[in-house]
Amino acid sequence: MSGPAGIGHIVHPTAPTSHPALPVEPLLEVRGLSVSYGRIRAVEGVDLAVEPGRIVSLVGSNGAGKSTTLMAISGILPLAAGTVRFAGEDITRLAPEARVGRGIAHVPERRRVFAGMSVRENLVLGGYSRGDRAEIERDIDTLTALFPILGKRLGQAAGTLSGGEQQMLAIARGLMSRPSLLIMDEPTMGLAPQVIDLILDTVLEIRARGTTVLLVEQNAVEAMRLSDHVYVMRLGRIVHQDSGSNIDPDRVKAFYMGAEA
């Protein structure tokens, strides 16, 4: 795909410098994150870091706490304990809309597009925090080039789209805020195999255009293939982590099955 005009036009610092051995400051840093639902502690003491320009995946079986962790990072759920830092700033107490303004966008599980609104209206709403109307229209053009089917559906109600088209719209809507970090929760859930391939290729394209990605993906094998770093969750805790190229799929499977503590 050709380079963008608008979305992702600012590339975040990932290229080698004259000091390649120096550590890269994380774009997102989570320490001791805990979340409770009433008396139930769903997530306990999660530490993770996402460096700029990377794809980082959080994998684990159903109920491991992955989606809860993402919602806590984006401010949808309150923390019982812990801190969230983004671009060097403590955002632990910021409201979700303020986090969007700082550069975090969340593409939720099961897409959750605004069904009664048109595709165009969904996209415009994604840029609600911006005041640059001309640039918003430019970004709509860029995103409909990334997802051509959306360009043919701009006047159509979002609720009438197929599941795959709704997922494309949810991703495009998230990108309309021009985030530095795009959080994606189960983007391939319930989709046909050929659409899954398209969505996963799009994740790589989003990163290539300069946006960092934090991904929860049901297909752990594909997540490991895509990712620069992988965290494995089990029963609300991070139980293993490694680079995407080094992580052992058999060991990850053992964590899923509860064979490793």
Core attributes:
disordered N terminus; 4-stranded antiparallel sheet; about 35% helix; single chain; about 260 residues; 6-stranded mixed sheet; alpha/beta
Question: How would you sum up this structure, described in words?
Answer:
The chain has 261 residues and is an alpha/beta fold. The protein is 33% helix and 23% strand. The chain contains nine helices and ten strands. The protein has helices at 66-73, 96-102, 119-126, 133-146, 148-151, 163-175, 193-208, 220-226, 249-257, and strands at 28-37, 40-50, 55-59, 81-86, 89-90, 104-107, 181-185, 212-216, 229-234, 237-243. The strands form two sheets. The protein has a six-stranded mixed sheet with strand order 6-7-8-3-9-10, with helices on both faces. It has a four-stranded antiparallel sheet with strand order 2-1-4-5, with helices on one face. Strand 4 (81-86) and strand 5 form a beta hairpin. Helix 3 runs parallel beside helix 6. The chain is globular and about 50 Å long. 42% of the residues are buried. The model is unreliable at 1-6 and 8-19 (pLDDT under 50).
Could you outline the blueprint of secondary structure elements for this entry?
Layout: E1 28-37, E2 40-50, E3 55-59, H1 66-73, E4 81-86, E5 89-90, H2 96-102, E6 104-107, H3 119-126, H4 133-146, H5 148-151, H6 163-175, E7 181-185, H7 193-208, E8 212-216, H8 220-226, E9 229-234, E10 237-243, H9 249-257
